[in-house]
Amino acid sequence: MTGQTNEPLLLLIDLQKGFDHPKWGERNNPEFVSNAKKIISHWRESNLPLVHVRHASTEPGSPLAPHETGHEFYEWAMPLEDETELVKQVNSCFIGTGLEALLKSRGVEQLVVLGLTTNHCVSTTVRMAGNFGFDVKLVGDACATFPRTSASGVHYSADIIHETALASLHGEFCTVTDTTTVINAQ
Question: Fewest CB within 10 angstroms: 16, 19, 168, 184, which?
Answer without folding.
Answer: 184
